[in-house]
């Protein structure tokens, strides 16, 4: 039986994380032929997230302080799984479960077909947006896609959806080479995969916007765009 590690980065998620994780656990029971390890990574939350996740049965937890960013949280989760549990596949998803959890089954099917990296995409024709983002966020997202496309020429429409899966070989490569701690880590993962000629594929999904997000879109976008140039400059490091 193949083993699947699921990483969920958590920041200030004390209100909803238990409910979301229990829903995920119930869904995973329906998927045969896989053993699932769920790792919740508390990325320096200032609320009671650490206490809440530690009280959830049947999961592994990691906590550290201060907050370092989603990219670091995902990296720490993958590291933990590689070193202690040695899973065959690795999936990470947002704590708010914006991407419908049915994507887990579809992602595993795509990985079994031989794809090294599977990226959930909100913009595939078959995808369904159940709750749209506010106009401001949609505008920034559109600008981001245009800039990313011009800089990296990826053959995917959506790099930033918070649900992705990979096989063990790619997970090891990304942990060795990746450097970005913030939201640009998704682009970095895909760029490294492209440099090493890994197979990557988009996955159409059902997706709903999380209206409770407190992230400042303009402030985070400025850092994100700066990080894109850092990723391009790191090409020699990635290939070394």
Write a brief caption for the model.
This protein is of the alpha/beta class. Helices cover about 45% and strands about 20% of the residues.
Structural features, described:
Helix 3 crosses helix 6 and helix 5 packs parallel to helix 8. Strands 3-2-1-4-7-5-8 form a seven-stranded mixed beta sheet, sandwiched between helices. A two-stranded parallel sheet has the order 6-9. With 240 residues, it is an alpha/beta fold. Helix content is 43%, strand content 20%. It is globular and about 45 Å long.
Features:
about 240 residues, 7-stranded mixed sheet, two-stranded parallel sheet
Layout: helices, strands, pairs:
Layout: E1 2-10, H1 17-28, E2 34-43, H2 49-54, E3 60-64, H3 70-84, E4 89-92, H4 103-112, E5 117-121, E6 128-131, H5 135-152, E7 164-167, H6 168-177, H7 185-195, E8 200-204, E9 206-208, H8 217-233, H9 235-239
Parallel strand pairs: 1-2, 1-4, 2-3, 5-8, 6-9
Antiparallel strand pairs: 4-7, 5-7
Helix pairs in contact: 3-6, 5-8
The gyration radius over C-alpha positions equals: 17 Å
Mean pLDDT: 96
Largest sheet: 7 strands, mixed
Strand order of the largest sheet: 3-2-1-4-7-5-8
Taken in chain order, the helices and strands follow as EHEHEHEHEEHEHHEEHH
| Percent range for β-strand residues | 15-25%
- Class derived from helix and strand content: alpha/beta
Helix content estimate: 40-55%
Shape: globular
The rounded distance between the terminal residues' Cα atoms is: 35 Å
Number of strands: 9
Total number of helical segments?
9
Low-confidence stretches: none
